[in-house]
Write a structure and sequence with these properties.
Elements lengths: L7 H10 L2 E6 L13 H17 L2 E2 L22 H17 L4 E6 L5 H13 L4 E6 L5 H7 L9 H11 L8 H7 L35 H24 L2 H4 L10
Parallel strand pairs: 1-2, 1-3, 3-4
The protein binds zinc ion.
The site of zinc ion (ZN) has 6 residues, from helix 2.
Amino acid sequence: MYLADETWPNLGTYFEEESLAIVPLGSTEQHGPHLPEGTDHMIAEALAREAAERTGYLCTPTINVGVSPHHRQFHGTMWVDAPVFRDYVESFSRNLSYHGIDRIVYVNAHGGNVEHLQEVGRRLHETETAYAIEWMWDESIPDLVDDLFERNGPHGGPKETAMIMHIANELVHDDRLEDARDGGLTEWDEMGVHGAKTFYDAADNTENGVLGDQTDATPKKGEELFEAASDQLVKLCDWLDDQPFEDLMPEPHVRERE
Ligand SMILES: [Zn+2]
């Protein structure tokens, strides 16, 4: 069920019976010369809507702009500051709890959002408002991602390229896949100096903004990733729905030992 398509009486029926919401979040930021800037939010929305369709749970509209200042040197990248993003997602989630939602899955497809969503989840947990968890699609299927691609990359690489080929193939510039590979960084291994991370921006490491070997992506592999990640998401939603609310809430303060 997609919230924006429903009427309020229908939603009232949902809130009477269910208390789970799926919230897609991504970014609008450069994804190299070959992929659209909406890559992350398109992936998040497609997975969230697929899971909502399969399970009947509620999917909210997508939060399309996230925490992406580290891509700002590339044309068109959009972002909001991290504290604003946290407050916005927290307020958005408290709004859901007003209607009766007490468990939320943040379907995330942008690495820059992760720590902030975890912080929002912590705040909602602390106030016993809701149990909200962050879920990142590629982290739910690490073995498959490793098996499918030899030279992956955390950004604009073959896994995201394959996903967009599956979701919106018309937006992929497949005549630029070799350029994407040759102008970026194919071997990614967290760089740093004596244990310190010495860069802030994507532009510090990659000329064209992307990492990995994009020529390894195909729509078929994208479909495989999409199906496997959707299965994981459906299972996560069912698990979360099954938990008694008290079990999801914080432990009481420890007692003094006698
Ligand atoms: Zn991305």
